[in-house]
Specification:
Elements (H helix, E strand, L loop, with lengths): L1 E17 L1 E6 L9 E11 L4 E5 L5 E7 L3 E14 L11 H8 L3 H4 L12 H12 L4 H15 L1 E2 L10 H7 L1 E2 L1 H14 L4 E8 L10 E13 L3 E5 L4 E2 L4 E7 L8 E6 L4 E11 L2
Parallel strand pairs: 7-8
Antiparallel strand pairs: 1-6, 1-15, 2-5, 2-14, 3-6, 4-5, 9-10, 9-13, 10-11, 10-15, 11-12
Helix pairs in contact: 3-4, 3-6, 4-6, 5-6
């Protein structure tokens, strides 16, 4: 088990004063069976009241308005979380039984449908079908598919944008964790395996020193259902360990953006993001 301190600062600097902004932040982790939130808080500048709620998919959301004129908006989430490893367990559930079980619950049915973000490139669909045919169980097939996608796409920032689709990233064979996650979701759903998008943080240092702040990033990975939900990080080709901190789940990135909002005014806003992760124990 690791104890991680996370500071995620983000927001906008406008090219002039704007009249008002209306925002939602999904930046605070929740306690689960493998992670425990010791403390968390959200600081907003300009100061304003915040309404906290849990959304449909179980993600903590902070909704807030800034109604006075402002030239900048800064949101800083600070969390201290204890995290345990989540090793993969391969169920022996077969394909036919998965089809029956996945159709019984809304939580799995809604993770089978493709979105504009996840709709697979024809080459990805063919890879998924080929690998699925080689494995007698969906769990083993899911792992093989996720590993193959991660191996085929090079991690490279700056090639894609926040609105890019998985199919576009596949064409370039380059992208970031968001893109690789979308491609993998599309591949798994193509062969009837329910799969969901997971947002959170990843400490970049496997052997991080205690007490040393490290520049980090928001991260994304997948969970698939083959009798139960299992997580995997296709970008890094690894199981979900004690460096992964879960924040939210959804059908794709659109369900879990760290910050979403609108503002009133003629001026353009420039986004800034800084994530610092420190291993405390």
């Amino acid at each position: 088990m690791r104890r991680l301190r996370i500071e995620h600062a983000t927001g906008f600097t406008y090219q002039g004063a704007v009249g008002a902004s209306y925002n939602e932040a999904r930046m605070l982790p929740t306690s689960t069976d493998t992670q425990f939130v010791l403390s968390s808080q959200l600081d907003i500048e300009p100061s304003t009241s915040v309404n906290y709620y849990v959304d449909y998919f179980g993600t903590r959301v902070a909704a807030f308005d800034v109604l006075a004129g402002h030239a900048a908006l800064v949101i800083t989430a600070r969390s201290l979380v204890e995290v345990r490893r989540r090793p993969l367990e391969f169920s022996d559930l077969g394909w036919e039984r998965l089809g029956a079980e996945a159709g019984r619950a809304v939580t799995t049915v809604e993770m089978l449908g493709q979105s504009a973000r996840t709709a697979p490139h024809p080459e990805v669909a063919e890879i998924a079908r080929s690998l699925a045919s080689q494995h007698p169980t969906p769990a083993r097939a899911a792992h093989a598919i996720a590993t193959a996608i991660g191996d085929a796409v090079e991690y490279m920032p700056g090639i894609t944008g926040v609105h890019s689709t998985g199919a576009e990233a596949w064409t370039a064979r380059k992208g970031v964790c968001q893109d690789i996650t979308h491609i993998t979701l599309g591949a798994l759903r193509e062969v009837g395996i329910p799969a969901r998008y997971v947002s959170g943080y990843l400490h970049p240092g496997e052997h991080a020193e205690i007490g040393v702040p490290t520049r980090g990033e928001s991260h994304a990975w997948i969970e698939w259902f083959a009798g139960d939900w299992q997580g995997f990080d296709p970008t890094n080709g690894i199981e979900i360990g004690d460096r992964h901190v879960l924040v939210g789940r959804g059908r794709d990135y659109n369900d879990v953006p760290p910050l979403r909002g609108v503002y009133a005014g003629p001026h353009k806003g420039d986004l800034h993001v800084k994530v610092t992760i420190t291993r405390e124990a």
